[in-house]
Amino acid sequence: MSRSRVPTARPLATRVVAVYGLLGIALGVVTVRDLAVARGWSAGTPWYENAVNGLDGLTSGGATTAAGTVIGVIGLVALICALLPARRTHDRTDATPGLWLSRPAIAMLAERAAERTPGVYEASATVHRRRVVVKAAGADEEAATRVEDAVRRALDGVTGRRIVVKRTEVEVP
Amino acid sequence: MRRHGRVTDRMLAALLGLLTVAAGAIVVAWSLGLVPQWSSTLDLSRFSGSVVDTEWWPWMSAGVGVLLALLALVWLLRRAQPVPRPPALSRASTDAGAVRVDLDAVAQAVARRLEAGAPISSARGKGVDSRGVFLVDVRASIDEISDGPAIIRAVERAQQELDDSFGEGRAVCQLVVSAPGRWRSIVRRGSATPRVH
User: Within this chain, do residues A78 and A104 fall inside the same structural domain, yes or no?
Assistant: First the structure.
């Protein structure tokens, strides 16, 4: 059953290409605008003329070095994004290879199990790399043990992470 | 998003990144005077006279610009809304005859069955013919009142039914469970849900 596919988010490379794509669309709009101006269909000066005139006579110096460095760094970031693996969105469960759960889904399972435990007034859960941390507000000291049992039952086979319950005192009037 | 689409994106991003790095390196090399043949002052007068001032330049630049914009637009639209794919079909032929199975229909049926038997909702199924192995990919949201073992049992049951129908190891059930959208935003904000007794 190892033929299942790992659920992943879109790779960062897609975002990089999207940014370049938007730049390409902007370039297309500018060139059409310049054509309209050059042919006299629209008033104004072509922007390519301004660009060429602005760059003509430019001397090398600190500003051009900085501009080149910025361009190079942008390219380097794009290159790194192209090579980075896509982020995993879900974790494979321990019990069956066919079931994958996202971290928020695991947190929801844990939190709902904690909230259903008698004596708990409020609960929240966060899933870390190796631990599931459940914060439970309860009136008695045994609440933490009951919460841990309930969360362990709810997450049985779902995750191998350690379950940590943190209890906060609640004053019952 | 399909796998070969991701490979295309990676190659495109790498190519565009390399071109940008090369452009930056050329500017830095010129600025620092690393290439003695290059003048320290940029002279575009010849380019301006022989190319930019010609009749054909605006047409050519607009043509190239529109082509680039169209390519970018097609790419963006394909990523925003994937092209509908034909249903995956599995062929099984015996002496008795040939059978063609619409894998998407099977996947949707498995999704409905999982939704009925497990504490999940909004299940959507998609069939993928992955080199002879039929992959039933079901995406679903977790229910408010749910527990892990119940979902595991439902997946194992679905897998058993697929084994009975298609043969051992011929079809793989994959259930991918996420939290509902509202829950994800609550988790991001880090707030807890108060409980009232």
Answer: no
Based on the fold, state whether residues A158 and A135 are members of the same structural domain: yes
pLDDT in tens, A99-119: 999 999 999 999 999 988 888
Q: Which of B11, B27, B41 sits opposite A71 (nearest CB)?
A: B27
- Domain encompassing residue A126: 92-169
DSSP assignment string, B113-159: HHHHHSSEEEEEEEEEEETTEEEEEEEEEE-SS--HHHHHHHHHHHH
Decide if A89 contacts A110 (C-beta within 8 A). Answer: no
- Give the pLDDT score at B61: 92
Q: Assign residue A43 a region: left if phi > 0, alpha if psi is -120 to 50, beta otherwise?
A: beta
Q: Is B81 on the interface with A (CB under 8 A)?
A: no
**Sorting pLDDT into bands at 50, 70 and 90, what band is B196?**
very low
Interface check for B60 against chain A (CB to CB < 8 A): the answer is no
Q: Do A78 and A101 sit in the same domain of this protein?
A: no
Q: How many CA atoms lie within 13 A of B91 on its CB side?
A: 3
- Considering only CB atoms, which chain A residues are within 8 Å of B4? none
Chain B 137-196, residues with CB within 8 Å of chain A CB atoms = 137, 142, 144-149, 151-152, 155-156, 158-159, 169, 172-179, 183-184, 187, 190-195
Out of 3.40.50.1820, 3.90.190.20, 3.30.70.140, 3.30.70.1350, the CATH code matching B89-188 is 3.30.70.1350
How confident is the model over A17-36, as pLDDT tens digits?
A: 999 999 999 999 999 999 99
Average pLDDT rounded to a whole number, residues B18-45: 90
- Residue A158: list chain B partners with CB under 8 A: 148, 151-152
